[in-house]
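Hi all, posting the design record for the shared folder.

TITLE: backbone redesign
STEP: 1 of 1
STRUCTURE INPUT:
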């Protein structure tokens, strides 16, 4: 219970015994906890040094009021942690000073091993204060689902923008996970042909895998600090973000805004499910991938696509995408 304050399990047992007894000699405490007097004496000495117990002139042990004593220990530990943070920042400043003297050293560090790579990725997500930029594409090294670390930094007010490759939708359920991420605050867009997987936190650190084959994609990565290389990766993200297809309207619930639904009907806009279909279609997904995400058959997708082309007065899927963007549907 008190291990976080540096108090061992044995010392905690002795302390609780003293609290229950009110005041007692070492032999009485030893009898209560089932320990030898020598061991109890060592524990009491340690507790006394922490200010949790006191001894009177008759060598009787008395517990100090627990809430006050423990609160004081917690405050002391918080002060120690704060000093550690300041020391870490000073060391980081020294490290950055060294980097300025040797610009070619430490621009990028290799991270080896799946567990080390996953730990770095979590640190990047949870440490972000302003924004996380992500390239997402297969192959994946773990079962997909809601990214709890992303939800955590979104809750703290950090922005999250994700670019998803069309091949990410070969995985059933991806659209549902994107909808959950969008509800948490992620901004998502889709594009065909992402060159790599990548995460960038606050435009100051990036993590990318060094290989993209399914067998080794999660075994080695590159951690990139402030540098021209990092600036180039941010520019690449922004350039592709402008070209990508936004997903926000694909997750919108038209029933939540009756006036919007009426307006859509009046202007012959497609119904809500077809906005999802339009988004997936414009992003470049094939019929099979769309069918997996919408949980319908490929035949149903083809039928609905034909209906969309007719509604939008388009002869090709490309024209349908152009018309959809022009009308503000996606």
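Okay, here is what came back for every position:
SEQUENCE:
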């Amino acid at each position: 219970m008190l291990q976080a304050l540096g108090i061992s399990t044995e010392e905690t047992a002795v302390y609780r015994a003293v609290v229950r007894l009110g005041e007692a000699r070492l032999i009485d405490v030893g009898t209560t906890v089932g320990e030898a007097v020598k061991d109890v004496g060592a524990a009491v000495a340690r507790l006394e040094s922490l200010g949790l117990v006191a001894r009177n002139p008759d060598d009787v042990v008395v517990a100090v009021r627990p809430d006050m004593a423990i609160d004081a220990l917690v405050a002391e530990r918080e002060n120690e942690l704060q000093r550690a943070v300041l020391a870490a920042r000073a060391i980081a400043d020294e490290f950055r000073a060294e980097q300025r003297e040797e610009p070619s050293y430490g621009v990028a560090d290799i991270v080896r091993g799946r567990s080390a790579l996953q730990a770095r990725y979590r640190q990047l997500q949870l440490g972000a204060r302003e924004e996380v930029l992500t390239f997402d594409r297969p192959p994946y090294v773990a079962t997909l689902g809601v990214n709890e670390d992303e939800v955590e930094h979104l809750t703290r007010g950090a922005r999250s923008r994700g670019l998803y490759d069309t091949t990410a939708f070969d995985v059933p359920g991806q659209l549902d996970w994107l909808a959950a991420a969008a509800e948490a605050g992620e901004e998502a867009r889709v594009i065909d042909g992402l060159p790599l997987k990548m995460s960038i936190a606050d435009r100051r650190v990036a993590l990318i895998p060094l290989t993209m084959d399914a067998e080794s994609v999660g075994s080695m990565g590159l951690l990139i600090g402030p540098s021209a290389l990092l600036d180039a990766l941010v520019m690449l993200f922004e350039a592709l973000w402008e070209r990508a297809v936004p997903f926000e309207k694909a997750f919108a619930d038209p029933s939540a805004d009756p006036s919007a639904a009426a307006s859509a009907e009046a202007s012959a806009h497609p119904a809500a499910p077809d906005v999802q279909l339009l988004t997936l279609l414009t992003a470049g997904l094939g019929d099979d991938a769309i069918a997996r995400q919408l949980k319908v058959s490929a035949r149903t997708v083809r039928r609905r696509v034909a209906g969309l082309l007719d509604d939008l007065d388009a002869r090709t899927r490309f024209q349908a995408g152009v018309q959809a963007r022009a009308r503000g549907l996606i």
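COMMENT: The longest strand covers residues 159-165.
Let me know if anyone wants the other runs.
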